[in-house]
Design goal:
Largest sheet: 2 strands, antiparallel
Shape: globular
Structural class: alpha+beta
Radius of gyration: 12 Å
Number of helices: 3
Distance between the termini: 26 Å
Strand order of the largest sheet: 1-2
Helix content: 25-40%
Order of helices and strands: HHEEH
Number of strands: 2
Length: about 70
């Protein structure tokens, strides 16, 4: 699910092209074992978790993680 309000929060922080998933039913949370909020996850096109970190990640940290898995 996508929410423009949630997306606006991230845009104000400098994330211009970051999809936001709202897991209202909890299915994604269960599938990927997310136990903390907020959490950041990088998931490839096959659905494999490449990185999962509890807590907030700033723009620079997220960019470094993305470089490390590409």
């Amino acid at each position: 699910l996508y929410s423009s309000a949630a997306s606006d929060v991230y845009k104000r922080q400098g994330y211009n092209n970051l999809p936001v998933l709202l897991d209202e039913g909890g299915a994604v949370t269960k599938k990927y074992g997310i136990r903390f909020y907020p959490s950041a996850a990088l998931i490839d096109t096959e659905g494999n978790v490449k990185m999962l970190r509890p807590g907030h990640m700033n723009k620079e940290s997220l960019a470094m993680e993305m470089k490390g898995i590409s």
